[in-house]
Design goal:
about 0% strand
Amino acid sequence: MVKTDIESFKEFVHKHPDLIKEVKKNKRPWKEVYQDWIVLGEEHESWNQYAKDKEKKQDERSKSDKTRTELTVGDIVAGLSKLQINDVQKYLSQFGSLMDAVQELLQQFNNQSDRPNQLPEKRMNDYPSYRD
C-alpha cells in the first residue's frame, strides 16, 4: 500500500513534537507547516529544532559541518530531486496571481489619488436600455 502525502506528513509531525507545540501556541498554522514540508522535504535542517532527539541531530549536524564545509553539485541535485516540481509551480503561479492583484489594486489607488475631489461621471452608455 502506498502512503499518501497526508499520512507521511502525520508521521513526520509525530517525529517532531515541538512542531505540534508551536502550532498549538498559534506561532504557525498547519497549512504553512505542510507547505514548508512539501517544499523543503523531511530531511531539511530547519526541522531539527523540532525533533524528538534534538541533541542527537545537532551532534550529527555539527559532525557533518566539521567534515564537509562545501556544498557539492551532488548535494544540490539531491535537494532539487526532493522538491515536487508541480507543487513549486503551483505555489509560484499563485504568488504571481497574488502579485498581479496587488499591482492592480495599487494602480486603482494611484488613479483615485490623481483626482481626489471629483465624482465619477454618469455615463448612459455604460447601462444599455432595453426597448419593448
